[in-house]
Amino acid sequence: xxxxxxxxxxxxxxxxxxxxxxxxxxxxxxxxxxxxxxxxxxxxxxxxxxxxxxxxxxxxxxxxxxxxxxxxxxxxxxxxxxxxxxxxxxxxxxxxxxxxxxxxxxxxxxxxxxxxxxxxxxxxxxxxxxxxxxxxxxxxxxxxxxxxxxxxxxxxxxxxxxxxxxxxxxxxxxxxxxxxxxxxxxxxxxxxxxxxxxxxxxxxxxxxxxxxxxxxxxxxxxxxxxxxxxxxxxxxxxxxxxxxxxxxxxxxxxxxxxxxxxxxxxxxxxxxxxxxxxxxxxxxxxxxxxxxxxxxxxxxxxxxxxxxxxxxxxxxxxxxxxxxxxxxxxxxxxxxxxxxxxxxxxxxxxxxxxxxxxxxxxxxxxxxxxxxxxxxxxxxxxxxxxxxxxxxxxxxxxxxxxxxxxxxxxxxxxxxxxxxxxxxxxxxxxxxx
Length: 433
Description:
CATH topology of the largest domain: Rossmann fold
Largest sheet: 6 strands, mixed
Mean pLDDT: 95
CATH class of the largest domain: Alpha Beta
GO cellular component, one term: cytosol
Enzyme class: oxidoreductase
Family: Belongs to the histidinol dehydrogenase family.
CATH superfamily of the largest domain: Nitrogenase molybdenum iron protein domain
Pfam family, one: Histidinol_dh
Helix content: 40-55%
Function: Catalyzes the sequential NAD-dependent oxidations of L-histidinol to L-histidinaldehyde and then to L-histidine.
Order of helices and strands: EHHHHEEEHEHEHEHEEHEHHEHEHEHEHH
Strand content: 15-25%
């Protein structure tokens, strides 16, 4: 039995306010940048960010001057967090092995993992300086072996976000631009007179940034489709309602459209958690955003058993799934659809967002059903190669290829096999006469 103590006020969980035609606006910006290059980039930067310096790219000296203004403790914290991210990313890279096997005598098949040559990292600004996004996108790319990383971040209220620049530089960015929005994504993807194009773009952003990545996908690669942050908590009767409430609101403060869901086996925990959320929203400095998300997208659901809770949570396929139960590691076996799991009350989603070392660029809008989040493997091209050194095996493969190709009416393919069967086995074919 499923009981909703709190459900979304709208049937689809969305606002009834008029919608902006984001795809059309984004397409117009991309088309302008494609035809006008830097002049269009500058025009849109002036329009959207009121930012038009002589050069959007920061020089090494400018970077050094900006970083010198960042508090020493912030620099040390950046280095600590980036060490965690780098350590985990390098371990991921080490797990991806190149290999070669001899599938038959003289027939060699191999696999190589080759880093993408040039990557763009988009570091959002908007409401807050998002240092962590620099760690997740740039450090991970460099751990994968990417040679050139271009990093873009917008100004915040007309100012350069110095701490973000420090994070980008210390992460290993090769080029840093104070440039945001669609114009940044399009400039990186298409290239302009002053910015060489990249092959892949990673990083979160607002709906316009996400739509720009979607429209440019195919011309360049992207990490994954991105939507508003999501959090789902699975809790049993032993969960602390205050912890539940705090952890739900910690994600709801990302913006006004964050789904925050509690699935619990305890009606008491559910009811007390709702009361705690209401109490905390009266004192939380970011309540203006978090409260809108909670009112519009917040849900509290009571189920009969943890198995039912895990099954329902899998249907949500949430970006962040936090397990506040007596035996949290049980979720590793019971669940399969999530961006990332956070196991036990000593762990929280905010650790994953900011400091612990796993990547926080994760699938949203149920994309966790078919993909994981950003990781070192996203920056690698897994390619294969083959070599036949045995004449006998090449001839026998030629005979097999001829039959297999003709079963599909691919005569040209068949003849590639025929000629090797003829050369190495002496097989006769009418077309060779």
